[in-house]
Amino acid sequence: MYLPKKRCFLAVIHHQSLAQARKNVIIAMENGADGVFLIPHGQTTDNSNVCVVAKQIKAEFPNFWIGLNILEAAKHNFIAFNSANEGKLDGVWTNNMGILWQPHNGIISYRQMISTTKHRRCNNYTSKYFGGFQFKDQDQLPDDKLPEAVARSIRHTEVLTTSGDKTGEPPTVAKIRNLRNIVNQVHRGRKIFPIGIASGINHVNVIPLLEFAQYFLVASSISTDEYNLDPFKVERLADAIKKG
Q1: Is the pTM of this model over 0.90?
Q2: Beta bridge mates, 225
Q3: Do residues 12 and 36 lie in contact, with contact meaning Cβ atoms separated by under 8 Å?
């Protein structure tokens, strides 16, 4: 399912059970979110469970955008893509595209990223790919390496997805502005290449970021606890993004 809007708000649901996921998908649908990502969380779930639940949710809500992130290392991204393909899911989000920065020799390895792309193309996968770039818990690339890394990365993903320094913390406006400037410089297509933000977004700090990013993947600021969305907070953020 294509998301045609200029800016999209994707609620992130920490999977606990099918019933819990279904309840929160409905909250997201009814309060203005454009879609959801299901992800495993803590010790109460595992990758196989969340993959199965994501496919069941998509079967029940075929007209609502459903994505999957299994929070695994880059070498396991194939699991998410295979599940998304089997369940006709709309998106796959990985925290690590497979870029390895080697500061001891100043070299960036793209081997795993290229391998993932080959796997997607060989299997004709259609899910929109949100590839993690300069993501929390990754070794951050130095500024002089960013143009090269961005130019390579946007050939292997549909949404260049980044974060703040830790869970619940937004990236700085300066980081997203700089990333947008670099993307615009190296992207050769006619349409703007989308950037996604996947940490710390709320109805206030999203406003200055709307100029530079197109996708907002949000959990902390719209939840009542680790596993449940708050309808009021979902609607409030949806309104802020829509009106911004």
Answers
A1: yes
A2: 228
A3: yes
